[in-house]
Every structure is written in structure tokens, then in C-alpha cells.
Design brief:
By secondary structure, the chain is α+β, with helices and mostly antiparallel strands. The protein is 29% helix and 32% strand.
Length: 108
């Protein structure tokens, strides 16, 4: 199946457990290999609130290896996408406070 950027742009993104995390906002392509390196997902308002203490970045970065499926209606990513993001932030900061609501949301 082929999908155009117009179809991909603003596509809803859900985790495997059907949690809405945002919409595709952009993609990063390796100019040499013509391969998608990252999907940039505009965070939903809930995810923005939960991750605001960790990051000033607007978008979640999703690697192609984290994508389960893409069709014309939605993208499904691994449940650990937000958790991976938190792990990345913890490596870059000496002290990080993870909101309890985020931990509970990811465990479900």
C-alpha cells in the first residue's frame, strides 16, 4: 500500500492499546537513502499536559520501527512510544519528575 504525504499529514496516531496520542505533523527523510527516519507527531492535549514537565518540544518523535501499521484512517504505534520519550528525557536531565497520571496511563 502506498500513502501520500497529503494522506499522512494530520493522520490520527494511536497506541496499540488504542490511546490517542496525537496527529502526524511532519516527517524527517534521509536525503541520501530516501527513507523516513522519524514521524513527528503533534501531541494531543492530554499527552502535552502529561509530558510538559519533561520537554519543551512540541512533537513526539516516532521511529519507523515503532510503527505497527499505517492506513488511510490512522497510524498505530507501539504502546511504549511515550515511555521511550520519557526515558530519553531522563537521560538528558539530572532530575525528572514523571507525572503519576502518565505512569498509570502507560501501564494500562
Amino acid at each position: 500500500m502506498q500513502i501520500s504525504y497529503e494522506q499522512l499529514n494530520n493522520l490520527p496516531v494511536y497506541t496499540q492499546s488504542q490511546q490517542f496520542i496525537g496527529r502526524v505533523g511532519n516527517i524527517i527523510i534521509d536525503a541520501d537513502t530516501h527513507i523516513i527516519k522519524k514521524y513527528l507527531v503533534k501531541k494531543s492535549s492530554l499527552v502535552k499536559e502529561l509530558l510538559s514537565a519533561l520537554s519543551q518540544e512540541k512533537d513526539l518523535e516516532v521511529s519507523p520501527s515503532q510503527v505497527i501499521s499505517i492506513n488511510k484512517d490512522k497510524m498505530i504505534v507501539q504502546d511504549n512510544v511515550a515511555r521511550d520519550r520519557i526515558g530519553h528525557e531522563e537521560k538528558n536531565k539530572s532530575v525528572v519528575s514523571v507525572p503519576a497520571a502518565l505512569s498509570q496511563a502507560n501501564e494500562q
